[in-house]
Amino acid sequence: MQTQEILKKAMSNRKPISFQYQRIGKDQQESVGSARVILISTDNFGKETVMIDLFSTQNKFKNSMPSWRYFDMNDMCNIQILSN
Q1: Minimal CA–CA distance to 68: which of 48, 84, 52?
Q2: Is the pTM of this model over 0.85?
């Protein structure tokens, strides 16, 4: 199943996900949260970006408080739908 289909399934069933997030030049980080919106935008040069609006509940980012975050779908991997 592709990333977008996994995210759609998790959102429609209101299930949290766990995933690895790897941005270029940064260490890979693990995160857990509930995805709510898939945003597709196009810049002035026609490049399309797909962002995920997610309430992050467990992460290893500098700010470890639960909060809303945007994640670039292209940088997400190993996505798992959690039971709760």
Answers
A1: 52
A2: no
